[in-house]
Amino acid sequence: MTIRPDGPMAGAGPATSGPPPRAKRHRVVLQGRIVAGARLQPCVIRDLSRTGAKIRLAPRIALPDRFDLVIASDELRTVRACLRWRRGEFAGLVFEGV
């Protein structure tokens, strides 16, 4: 699955003064790899949007504040991710530069 920030509705609609709307999440089950220095840690991507993701990984694996996330889907891509939250085996990420 490819998630594109540009679609038929990109930029459409009235301007509002509130916070920007959240990007639509897509429930997925994709293989991922966390790249932290020279180490690769496997993870499963459970939901994905153009601005972030929720991943599942072993609770014993420590995550740095920022890391590269390799996403295996129709095309292999790497995004720079920031850790937003961690609860047990799940973690919420925000992608940088989006």
Overview of the structural elements:
The structure is a single chain. The N terminus is likely disordered. With 98 residues, this protein is mostly beta strands. A six-stranded antiparallel barrel has the order 1-2-3-6-5-4. It contains no helices and six strands.
Write the layout of secondary structure elements.
Blueprint: E1 26-36, E2 39-48, E3 52-56, E4 66-72, E5 76-87, E6 90-95
Antiparallel strand pairs: 1-2, 1-4, 2-3, 3-6, 4-5, 5-6
Specify the structural class: mainly beta
Order of helices and strands: EEEEEE
Q: How many β-strand stretches? A: 6
Instruction: Provide the helix percentage.
Output: under 10%
Strand order of the largest sheet: 1-2-3-6-5-4
Which term fits the overall shape?
globular
Radius of gyration: 14 Å
- Residue fraction in strands: over 45%
Distance between the termini: 18 Å
Q: Which residues sit in consecutive blocks of at least 5 with pLDDT less than 50? A: 1-13
Mean pLDDT figure: 83
User: Tell me about the biggest sheet?
Assistant: 6 strands, antiparallel, barrel
Number of helices: 0
List descriptors.
mainly beta, 98 residues, six-stranded antiparallel beta barrel, single chain, disordered N terminus
How would you concisely characterize the structure shown here?
With 98 residues, this protein is an all-beta fold.
